[in-house]
Design a protein that fits this description.
Layout: E1 2-10, H1 14-25, E2 30-33, E3 45-49, E4 52-55, H2 66-71, E5 81-83, E6 88-90, E7 100-102, H3 106-114, H4 118-142, H5 153-167, H6 171-182, H7 185-190, H8 196-207, H9 219-225, E8 230-231, E9 234-235, E10 239-241, H10 246-258, E11 262-264, E12 269-274, E13 279-284, E14 289-297, H11 301-308, H12 319-323, E15 331-338, E16 359-362, H13 366-379, E17 381-390, E18 405-414, H14 427-444, H15 448-451, E19 452-458, H16 460-467, E20 503-505, H17 519-530, H18 532-535
Parallel strand pairs: 1-2, 1-14, 2-11, 6-16, 14-20
Antiparallel strand pairs: 3-4, 5-10, 6-7, 8-9, 12-13, 13-14, 15-18, 15-19, 16-17, 17-18
Length: 537
């Protein structure tokens, strides 16, 4: 049995749904095929304990492209996003009033940093302005289709336009861009700030999801990648979707269905059918085929070429290049039901305070961030992990019973494969590391352990099996210098076109990479529509 459509999309994560909407709006018939019971990929909300709901994997919002929100009219479809009351909070052990809280205002951030270094407080506006200018250039790149090796006149023109944009920058901004695209986040921040607590606080965004030390070259770019977002026009701030991250993807799905997209859930794809030169269909595990003139893939390219394209040979780039993509983000996720809010020794109290609504980051010094990575490299997981905890129920009361809370813990670093003789398949490993995470938080908030009512934990293996993210990589492939822009996913395939006619990449493995942005889906749809006349022949 087979069905036909213009374009089939493998994977109903947010990028696949965004891609589907743009294609359907242009008049194409589109079918999205998703293996899980609900669409949304890693951006889903579920009840993990009676009365307690939370975002399962992705957990906070800022990077979702404003143009996509407007185009799809997501607010009309129920999307509501609220800014955190303060930005981030870095607790310390046992020293009252010595934590670092960075508010959303510049003056507030300067006052907080001045307690550690007046010089650093004075440098902060210039630092943020330089990062914003770099971010403005990045925002231009986000919507570009990168030049592809061996491309024609169009790619030459793109390169010249982008080169002119760089040449027009001031010398100071050129230096900043060179630092951001080549240096470690530690090295970049050392040029701006003198106090270790300040540098460590800002360095977190450079190591999150990277399985890297803050001293690893290329991590400065990850810092930039996490800074380009905005929420309701406010640049660089983070917040929560009311109803959890699943509210974002459900709003996108409603818009897609309204545009005419067909969504199939509980539908596992077993193979992408092709004749070695042209894509033909998606074959389902049920035996059904979805015939299409084009297929857009919203799964990691490494997974696609490893498991879904048997018999593919003699293409450029070669299938082996895709299977060799570096993956692994060192991520471990926990959702926790709490009877009360954490009582931090440096900011005491279980009554809700602004810092409870922040991104609460355990990573107080640069040495701590570095040791966490070194420990994982040697032992498989960090003895003292880096943790970002957010408590969305402080903003969204629908997630937990009255007076109780849910917390998301995004934990660095764990190895995708543990040392010899150990495996994430062994439940003991996940349980042991979950205890280590709880113990770590409890050093800063002693009531945390006793307030836990239930937990949900996802190891790298769980993330891979549930969401298809190879090695638990939240970015569908690491975002180091060798896997960005024209090198993402591999050289020769940066234009969203894979080495089979009609096969496209619309997920985070494509430019501009990971995060809940919608941009890979948006950009891939543009390329498919540009090619449509050729595909229709």
């Amino acid at each position: 049995m087979s069905e036909k459509c213009d374009i089939a999309i493998l994977g109903g994560g947010h990028n696949g749904l965004v891609c589907a909407w743009y294609l359907a709006r242009a008049g194409r018939s589109v079918t999205v095929v998703e293996k899980n019971p609900v669409v949304g990929g890693a951006a889903v909300t579920e009840e993990f304990h009676p009365g307690f709901r939370n975002s399962v994997a992705s957990y906070t919002v800022s990077l979702l492209q404003p143009g996509i929100i407007a185009d799809m009219d997501l607010k009309r479809h129920g999307l509501q996003m609220i800014q955190r009351p303060v930005g981030n909070f870095w607790p310390v052990e046992g020293r009252a009033m010595d934590g670092l809280v960075l508010p959303n205002t510049m003056l507030g951030r300067q006052e907080a940093i001045a307690r550690f270094s007046r010089n650093d407080a004075q440098r902060l506006p210039a630092y943020e302005a330089a990062l914003e200018r770099a971010g403005a250039l990045l925002r231009e790149l986000l919507l570009m289709t990168p030049p592809s090796a061996g491309g024609g006149l169009e790619d030459i023109i793109k390169s010249l336009k982008f080169g002119k944009r760089i040449l027009d920058c001031s010398l100071q901004d050129k230096e900043t861009l060179c630092d951001l695209f080549t240096r470690s986040v530690a090295g970049f921040l050392e040029r701006w700030f003198e106090h270790d607590r300040v540098r460590a606080a800002l360095a977190f965004d450079g190591i999150v999801g990277t399985l890297a030390s803050p001293y690893t070259p290329g991590t400065a770019y990850v810092l930039l990648h996490h800074s380009f977002g905005e929420l309701d026009g406010a640049r660089g701030v983070w917040g929560h979707a009311i109803g959890g991250m699943g509210a974002i993807t459900q709003a996108i799905a409603k818009a897609a269905i309204e545009a005419g997209v067909r969504i199939m859930t509980h539908s596992t794809v077993s193979e992408v059918l092709h004749n070695n030169s042209r894509v033909m269909a998606l074959k389902l595990a049920s035996g059904e085929c979805i015939e299409a003139r084009a297929v857009a893939v919203n799964i990691p390219p490494k997974l696609l070429f490893r498991d879904f394209l048997p018999g593919l040979t003699d293409t450029s780039p070669a299938p082996a290049r895709f299977r060799q993509i570096e993956s692994g983000s060192g991520s471990f996720r926990m959702n926790v039901a709490l009877s009360e809010l954490p009582d931090f020794t440096c900011l005491p109290g279980t009554r809700q305070q602004p810092h409870h609504g922040a991104g609460i980051i355990i990573g107080p010094t640069m040495e701590y961030l570095d040791k966490a990575w070194l420990s994982a490299r040697g032992k498989g997981w960090s003895e003292e992990p880096v943790i970002e905890m957010v408590i969305p129920s402080t903003i969204d009361s629908s997630l937990a019973p009255k007076g109780k809370h849910v917390a998301s813990l995004f934990v660095q670093h764990v190895m995708p494969q543990l040392p010899a003789g150990r495996s994430w398949k062994n439940a003991h490993e996940k349980e042991a590391f979950s205890r280590r995470v709880i113990e770590t938080v409890s050093r800063y908030a002693p009531n945390f352990r006793s307030s836990i009512l239930a937990t949900q934990s996802l190891s790298p293996l769980d993330i891979e099996q549930r969401f298809g993210m190879v090695d638990g990589d939240i970015f569908h492939g690491q975002m180091g210098p060798g896997q960005l822009f024209s090198l993402r996913p591999v050289l020769g395939a940066a234009n969203y076109k894979l080495p089979v006619k009609g096969l496209y990449l619309c997920g985070a493995g494509a430019h501009p990479g990971g995060g809940v942005t919608g941009l890979p889906g948006h950009n891939a749809a543009r390329e498919i529509l540009r090619d449509w006349r050729k595909l229709a022949k």
